[in-house]
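Tutorial, part two.
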Amino acid sequence: MQEIEIKQLRYFVEVATTLNVTKAADNLNVVKSVVSKSLTQLEKQVGGKLLDRTTRNIRLTETGEFLLQRAQNLLQEFRHLTEDMSSISTEVRGVLKLTAAPALGYYLTKHLIPIFSSQWPDIRVSLELSYDYENLFSKGLDLAFRFSQIKDDRLITRTIGNSRRVLVASNQYLSKADLIRNIDDVSKHRCLLFQTHEEFSSWGLDNGQESKSLSVTGPFQCSNIEVLKEATLNGMGIGFIPLFAIQEELKEKRLVRVLPEWSRKTQILAAYRTGSHQSPKLAAFLKCISENTHLFNID
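Running the prediction step on this input gives:
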């Protein structure tokens, strides 16, 4: 088979995603005949039709659907390679693109990112707050903070610390609720759930000697830790919240630990693309993380 060129894949992906040769040509800033010729040549090279074209519409064939997925990945890798090569420089500058879960993002913005920005004023930090664990490549992100292992051979993952999730409630709630003597009592209380659909949730906790899985339910559920914290502060029930997100509230006694011997510990990971560690801006950020590991071990 004749070697397929990057330009051919780029033309094909544009047509396959727009399903319109004219629009694809406009987006690519080339004439329509160039795109059509490229598609015809590509179909000869792969030995099959990629698109079913009629006077009214275009749709992908099974071969086309297969090639589209692979071509998008290849173009993405090519773009990342180009970015990585252009960033290999003695100058530490540019845009550092990070992503983290919202609550952790707030914590990073308060504690780590100001330290990094003061060290490297020529680097602009772009932080995307998202729970999407699969979206590490689509926006050219440099590094993702995560709480669970990422199964992707294209990524390097580094454990940078631990997050402890704890049971908390407001004095307002505890003054009116039944006394909590042991871990099983928690299931009988109004619990605030970190989710949006299911009526029940399972909270896994341990006290260093034994583990428990509690089936809990309650009057409020939400997929945002900061919102759950507000619900807990307002006396709606017991929250199961990362310790890093409630340090001030605990210090000011606006929230109280419930059964403080029980908690759940999870790793905090930094994930980045293979090869991108050569980027000076990312190397500088990883060094900043290493110099401030105390920020990621809160007990």
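The radius of gyration is 25 Å. In part three we will examine how such features are distributed along the chain.
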